[in-house]
Amino acid sequence: MKANTIANDVTNLSLAWVKDMYKTSESFEPGFKILQQILRKLFILVPLERKGTTECATLDRVYGFDYWGYMTNGLQFGFSWRDQPVVEGSRTQRRWDTFTVRKTRETGAKTEFEKRKWAIKNKEPYPHYWVHSYHDDVTNEILSLALSTTEDVIDYVDLYNPPTKWTHDDKDGLAEFYIVPWRDMIAKGKNIVTYHKDFGFKTYRRIA
Known about the structure:
- It is a single chain.
- The chain is α+β, with helices and mostly antiparallel strands.
- The chain has one domain (about 5-205).
- Helices cover about 35% and strands about 35% of the residues.
- It is built from 7 helices and 10 strands.
- It has helices at about 5-15, 20-25, 30-40, 55-60, 110-120, 150-160, 180-185, and strands spanning about 45, 65-70, 75-85, 100-105, 130-135, 140-150, 165-170, 175-180, 190-195, 200-205.
- It has a 7-stranded mixed beta sheet with strand order 1-2-3-5-6-9-10, sandwiched between helices. A 3-stranded antiparallel beta sheet has the order 4-8-7.
- Helix 1 (about 5-15) crosses helix 4 (about 55-60).
- The longest helix is centred in the N-terminal third of the chain and has 14 residues, at about 5-15.
């Protein structure tokens, strides 16, 4: 299925269900509003895995889109978004302030790093924005969040080969992840915006 066909079909779905999707977007508070402030755009966030259509399933499973951003002026863009809980007193479930990029799976299946790199090179669909957030496990409040472009994250991994960590993935058993600290992307001049509950927003280069 061609990228423009998928995009057109999802657009039509978004137009038809715009009110319902806006309510869905509101349910992502407070992370959704933080993204709106970062991008300075009013958009409707469509959770693709909940749409239940062939087109959305393709964007989700094949191309790695978690959400589809739709603006009233017709502009559209995709997000991949990983969110992790922070548990007080836990040594592992803490706020790491990193992007994590799946490198290998125990099953041998292709990973997001392979898929995104291939998509960028071959001009296939991929989520334009890469988001990682950490929320309080009790209050659900966003403690920190960062947004970059997929190209910047993949380029960073490609150039600097950051350290990896094996961890359990609920979907596929063990998986190996590249660990990409936000501070390191900042130091290397990559496009990134960060948000911290106590310090607000910091922008490093322009996010387009």
